[in-house]
Amino acid sequence: MAEASPSIERIPGYCSLCISRCGSIATVQDGRFVALDPDPSHPTGRALCAKGRAAPELVYDPRRLRYPLRRTRPTGDPDPGWERIGWDEALDLVAGRLAAIAAEGGPESVVVSVASPSTSATDDTTTWISRFMNAFGTPNLLGSMELCGWGRFLAPTYTYGAPVPGAFMPDLERAGCILYWGYNPNIARISHATATADALKRGARLIVVDPRKAGAAAKADLWLQVRPGTDAALALGIAGVMIERGWFDREFVRDWTNGPLLVREDDGRLLTEADLDGGGRGGGPARFVAWDAAAGRPVVYNPATGRYAGDPSLLPGTVRVATVAGEVECRSAFEIVAAGCRQYPPDVVASICGVEAAQVVDAARMLWESRPVAYYAWSGVEQHTNATQIARAIGQLYALTGSLDAPGGNVLFTPVPAPNVEGRELLPPGQRARALGVLERPLGPAKWGFVTTDDVYRAILEGTPYRVRGLVGFGANVILAHADSRRGREALAALDFYVHADLFMNPTAELADVVLPVASPFEREALKVGFEGSQDAASFVQLRRKVVDPPGEARSDAEIVFGLATRLGLGDHFWGGDIDAGNRSRLQASGLTLDDLRAHPEGIRVPLETRFRKYADERDGVPVGFSTPTRKVELYSQTLLDHGYPPAPEFEEPRVSPISRPDLAERYPLILTSAKHHLFCETQHRGLPSLRRKAMDPELEIHPAAAEARGIGQGDWVVLETPSGSVRARARFNDSLRPDVVVGQHGWWEPCPEVGAPGYDPYGPDGANLNLVIANDVVDPISGSVPHRAYVAQVRAAGDGGGLGG
Ligand code: SF4
Fold first, then answer.
1. Residue located nearest, by CA, to atom 4 of ligand 1
2. What is the pLDDT of residues 217-275, one digit of tens each?
3. What percentage of the chain exceeds 90 in pLDDT?
4. Does ligand 1 lie within 6 Å of residue 22's CB atom?
5. From the CB of 20, is ligand 1 less than 6 Å away?
6. CA-36 nearest atom, ligand 1
7. How much of the chain is helix, strand and coil, in % rounded to 5?
8. pTM for the model
9. H helix or E strand, kind and range, residue 136
10. Do 186 and 216 form a contact (C-beta atoms < 8 A)?
11. 3-class SS at 250?
C-alpha cells in the first residue's frame, strides 16, 4: 500500500531570537516544525543565521520547561525541591506576593528584569512588560542598558536629543560610506550584513573600527584596529583631521549644532543674554549668545524660536565680550570642540589606540569624500568605563559629516502610525525619581527607568537607597550576563520573592521561588508594527502566527503579563486580560486590523515615504530642530557640565587597563575584551546539538606570539586570570589580534549531553563564566557601564590538560 504523502505547511513569519527579526518561512510537516528558512519577500528576510535555522531544535529541546514550578526548599539548598503547580495557583501566588511586597515597601521594591530584546525574543512582549511596570508602579527595569544600548540609545540624547544611531538607523541603501564601530552585523544583525554586502557591491566604502578582524572588518576598505576602550581618542583624532582640513559640513555645524554659541572661559557656561544685559531685555538665562564675525558683535540665539538675531559664526580663537559684570573672555563651543580634537593629532592617536597615523587621516578623508555617511555602533563601545565619552566622541564626529537624517545617512524612517501603549501615564507621579541609581548617576540609564544590575544587587543586599524585595524576571540570565556573578547569586538568594519566566532552567532561574514555562516565539502569536533597517522594513506590519503548540503548559510572556495584571487588579489597564484587544489598540492608527493581518500572515506593507532632514521642518514658523536644551545638536553640553561631567567629549584611558593601573600591569599585562559568538545568543543556545557541535568549548582568542611566550599551544586549555578571579577556556590562535589583547566569550554554562559537551560552573575557577573575572567596582561615572570589553588580564597554560566545569 502506498504511504500517504506527508502534509506540509509553510508558514510565513519572522525569527525573533535577536534584533535582526529576520523574515522567515517555517515548514511544518505532519504537524511537526522541521525547518526555518529565509523569506526573501520579507524586508528583513534575505538570510537566516545558524541560530535561526536551529529553531526546530530549540522548540523540541527535551530540557524545555513545561509546567509552572514552585520551590519547596530554601534558596541555597542544592535541591530546590521544585514542585509542579497549576497556572492559576502559580499566578495567584505570584500576584499575592508582589502585592504584599508593594503594600509594605512600595511598588518600587519590586524590580522587573528582562532579557535584552537585541539578543532574545522579548521584543514580542516588551511593550506589555513596560505597561505592566507602569501600572504596577515600579520604575525599576533591570534591562542591562548599561551594557547594551546605552551608547546607541540614551547617551546620544546628550548630543542629538534622540537615539542616534539606535533609532536613526543607517540608510544602507543610499550610503556612500558606512562606518561600523564596535559592531559586527554578521553576528549581531544579519539583515544589516546582507544590506551592507549590497551596498559594497554598488560601490559604498566601509570603515570598521574593531579590535578584531572579524565579519565586516574583514571586508572593510579601512579596518581600524583600536586598542579596546580607546575609541574616544580615535574619534577625536579623526574629527580633528576633518576640522583641520575643512573636511566637514560647515553649514550643518553652524546652523544645526550649538557650535556657534559662546562659552565663558571663566566658568565654562554658555554665555547668556542675561550676562549681556542683566536680564533687562527679558531674554534672561534661557537665551544664548553667538558671535557675528562680520559685524564684530554678539548675537542672541533664542532656543524658543530656534533663530539667531544676526549671523553667527564658528568663531576661531577667543573673543572678549562686554557683560554687565565686565568683559568676559569667550570661545565658541565649536572652537572648544576643535581644541579638544587638536589634542589628538594622528601620531598621538597612533600611540594611544595603536591605529596607524596614516589610517586616521585616511578615515577622515574617506568619511568626507564618500559621504553621505551611515553609521552604527554596538556593545563593543558600550561596555567600558568611559562609554559615555566614547558615544559623545563618535556622535560629535558624525555631526561633522552633516549626514544626519539625510539620504544615505542615519535616518529616522517614517514609522507606521501607532500609539505608544507602554502606559507611561500610568506610572504614579514621583516614581521615576525613585529609580535605583538615579541619585548617584542622575543622567544615567535610571533617568529612563533602566536600573543597573549592580544597583539592584546593592538595593537587595544593603537596602540602599531602599530595600528591593521582589523580582519578576522575563528571561534575563543576569548571573551569567553581568559582572560579579557571586554577588549576584548572593543578592538573588536574599530576595523575599523571585518569579522567573523562561524557556529553560538556568543559573539565574535556579534562584527563583517560582519558575514559569514560556512558549518560544515559534509557539506564540506576536504583533510587530514596523521592522528595522530601511523604509520598507519600517513600513511592514506582521502578526506572526504560531507555528506549533508549546510544550506542556508553557505560555507566552504576554499571557503571563496579562494574567498577572488582572490578578493584581490592573485589568482595566489591560483590556480585561484580552491580548487581542490590546493589539487592536496598537493598530488603531495604522489603518490595519487584526483580521487583515491574520488573513495575510506574510505581513502587510503600509505605504509610507521617508522624509529627510526633519529637523529643518517648521512648526508655526519655528524650526523643529533637536530635543536638546539649545534645540541644536549639542557638541557642547551644559547639561553634562551642570552635573560635573565634561561638557565636550574627552578621552579617558580605560580605568582598568595596564596603563591606568601600572600597579597591576606587571601581573596582568594583557587586555581582556570579548565578542559575541556567532552560534549563540549571549548565554543561550549552547544546549542545541547542531550549534554546540560546532563550538564544543569556550575559547579565548590569543595572538600566536603571546601564546608561544606562555608555552600555550593551539587548542590548549588555559587559565584566564584577572584581579577578580580566574576561569578556563581553550586557546584559539588569532594572528590578526594585537599581541597584548585577548578575546573571551561570555555566556558559557549550559551542557549539551547529546554531543557530550559539558556544562560549566558559573561560580568557580574551573568553570568558564567570563563575567566571574570582571568586577563592578570601577564603572562609567555617567552610565554605570562595566568594563566587560577592556580589563587587565593574564593567561597561562592550564597545565592539567583539562578545563571541565561542573
Ligand atoms: S540573525 Fe539569526 S537569530 Fe537573529 S533574527 Fe535572524 S535568524 Fe534569528
1. 18
2. 999 999 999 999 999 999 999 999 999 999 999 999 999 999 999 999 999 999 999 99
3. 94
4. yes
5. yes
6. 7
7. 35, 20, 50
8. 0.96
9. helix 126-136
10. yes
11. helix
